[in-house]
Amino acid sequence: MTSLVVEAIPWSAERSPRSILAVRLQCLGDLVATLPYLRQVREAHPHARLDLLTRDLYAGFANTISWFDHILYLGESWTDGQALRSLAPLLPRLLIARYDVVLDLQGSWLTRRLRKLLRPAAWTHFDRFSPRPAFERVRDTVERAGIGDIVHRPGIGPFDTSRAEARLRAVGWRAGEDLILLNPGSHIPTRQWSTDRWVALAETFVAHWPRPVRFLLTGIDRMKERARVIAAAVGSRVIDLVGCSDQSELGPLLSLVQLTISEDGALLHLSCALGVPTVALIGGGSADVWVQPVGSHAAHFSPTRVACAPCLDSVCRYGDMRCAQWTAEEVYAAATTLYEHCRSGAGRG
């Protein structure tokens, strides 16, 4: 049964809460999606202790977020039993903090148990099942805690970009060149746009973009082959950092990007959270409503006129990916329209 209601007991005291715990254990993209809203909590309560509980798998990225007071890490555990064992050594520290508010942005069996153990005066649980974009459900979860007006506003920095700039210059990026992130990063075939269309999109940018342009490819090893094909076709305009950058570099690198075009994944959510003009390509294998970006700095392509999407299959049952037949020209047109909209000051936060 779908729930459209966030479970919550809101903060009712006249004073500001002294300590707040946010919990999001997985995945990296979902953790990133919480940050614009938690940043607003930080701004509303600058003197409160604001802590984050997440998995140590994401420590490389989380440690670059400077406005948390403490970040606590569970071990790399997927099952409830493993996670419970990882949580046990942290419990004394969590209990001593005496959190006034717990923002459960996971909504799992484990995080519910944790909230009951901590006994905060105010709490919220993430709505895991509503057919709405995750960004909307995160906003609702944070706002229902009653500790501030929470809006869809990007921004999770600041990041020190000096090392990222130096690294990009060392591999060919020059002042005055627009940097566009292309992210064919989904590992699930039904969430992918075909590699030949990524190549065609890059070639369309080269032919028609009004300024000098470079393409940034970054991510984990599983997208190396697709990145290799794009780099081979487009040549020196591609800066290929796939498999050569770690989580700590993601925020600084994406802070330098002028435009992102991305399949579903962590880089899509990070780009949106930073306020980069972002076009999402959402194939039929994604729960397309859930992963839609929000905000005037974002646009998306999702399956249209196909009865089989969203299917949540890992392999297209028809073998033709009919749900992701957008042309390079269509994506380029949407990207340029969005970019100009944001450049005029109407979009980017």
List the helices and strands and how they pair.
Elements: E1 7-9, E2 19-23, H1 28-44, E3 49-55, H2 59-62, E4 70-74, H3 80-87, H4 91-97, E5 101-104, H5 109-118, E6 122-125, H6 134-143, H7 162-170, E7 178-183, H8 195-208, E8 213-219, H9 224-234, E9 238-242, H10 250-255, E10 259-263, H11 266-274, E11 278-281, H12 288-291, E12 298-301, H13 328-343
Parallel strand pairs: 2-3, 2-5, 3-4, 5-6, 7-8, 7-10, 8-9, 10-11, 11-12
Antiparallel strand pairs: 1-6
Total domain units? 2
Biggest sheet strand order reads 1-6-5-2-3-4
Biggest sheet: strands, sense, closure?
Answer: 6 strands, mixed
CATH superfamily of the largest domain: Glycogen Phosphorylase B
Helix fraction by DSSP (H/I, runs of at least 4): 25-40%
The helix/strand series, from N terminus to C terminus, equals EEHEHEHHEHEHHEHEHEHEHEHEH
Q: How many distinct helices?
A: 13
Q: If you compute it from the alpha carbons, what radius of gyration comes out, rounded to the nearest whole angstrom?
A: 21 Å
Average pLDDT metric: 91
Helix-strand category: alpha/beta
Runs with pLDDT <50, length 5+? Answer: none
User: How much β-strand is present in the residues?
Assistant: 15-25%
The dominant shape is: globular
CATH architecture of the largest domain: 3-Layer(aba) Sandwich
The CATH topology annotation of the largest domain reads as Rossmann fold
Beta-strand segment tally: 12
- End-to-end gap: 36 Å
